[in-house]
Amino acid sequence: MPVNDLSIALLITLIGMGLVFGVIVLFWLFMSGLVRVAIPRERPVIADEEKAAEGQGLRQKAAIAAVSVALAMNSQETPKAYPLPPTVLVNTWQAVMRARLLSGRREGGQ
Q: In a 3-state reduction of DSSP, which class is residue 86?
């Protein structure tokens, strides 16, 4: 079976794409392994009831602060945008051509 240039090019393309996607999968596996190793999975347990109550109080204070900041940001006036300048009735090309016509010069001669 004769091998022509097109089949060689297709084979090289497939090998290159396979290598690229293979390296992407290896990076993905490496990153997921790093995430599993670096981030602890267990949550801290609050055994003492007093600490649990303090944590609840802190959460309430944080929620109140977040709501007050959101209300303050919402009540601020938004700056008004400047109006856009009026549109140009003649574009640059038309202005140049009209100026040439008025000055008496034509394209190709004077």
A: coil
Residue pair 65/71 in contact by the 8 Å Cβ criterion: no
Token pair belonging to 107: 């394209």
Q: Which residue has the tokens 């091998």?
A: 3
Model confidence over 28-77: pLDDT tens digits? Answer: 999 999 988 888 777 666 566 666 667 777 888 888 999 988 888 877 77
55: Cβ contacts below 8 Å, ≥ 6 apart: 46
User: What pTM did the predictor assign?
Assistant: 0.35
Q: How many helices (H) and strands (E) does the chain have?
A: 3, 0
State residue 20's pLDDT score. Answer: 97
DSSP state of 76: S
Q: How far apart are alpha carbons 95 and 100 in whole angstroms?
A: 9
Residues in the chain: 110
Report domain extents, the chain. Answer: 1-41
